[in-house]
Amino acid sequence: MNEFVLLFRMDIKTKEAQPSPEQMQVYMKKWQDWIGGIAAQNKLAEGGNHLSSDGKVVKSNNIVTDGPYAEIKESIAGYIIIKVKNYEEAVKIAKDCPILQGEGNSVEVRKIDSLDTND
After folding, report:
1. pTM of this prediction?
2. 22 CB-side CA count, 13 A
3. Are 99 and 105 in contact (CB under 8 A)?
4. Cβ proximity of 34 and 118 under 8 Å
């Protein structure tokens, strides 16, 4: 099994793009069902976290800016880590993510490579 991170990208700054409280309840139920389904298959390696829209970006030469995406609306809203056989299986799980019901939202799928040279 390999581990993949699913990064949830969405506009978390524009007020008009945010769901109403009623929509949020529906989305959260779908989200819990989706995560529960992954966990029930024993493919959820880490439940991840929701990320704040605020942040800082540190660049070379000790340059620090507000960020991470001051120029664009899209932000990484959160992530989970799953353990599956390959990219195809990871993408299949990502395609069912409820966040994709939002206009312009996306899920980025990235394989986690081990830094351990003994793997």
Report:
1. 0.83
2. 0
3. yes
4. no
Closest CA to 39 of 100, 82, 6: 82
Q: Which residues of 30-49 are buried (b: 16+ CB within 10 A; e: fewer)?
A: ebeebbeebeeeebbbeebe
Q: Are 111 and 98 in contact (CB under 8 A)?
A: no
Rounded CA separation 26/4 (Å): 27
CA distance 59 to 107: 25
**Distance separating alpha carbons of residues 27 and 32, to the nearest angstrom:** 9
Q: Hey, which bits of 22-88 come out as E strands?
A: 44-50, 56-59, 63-66, 74-84
Each residue of 61-95: pLDDT tens digit?
888 887 765 556 678 889 999 999 999 999 999 99
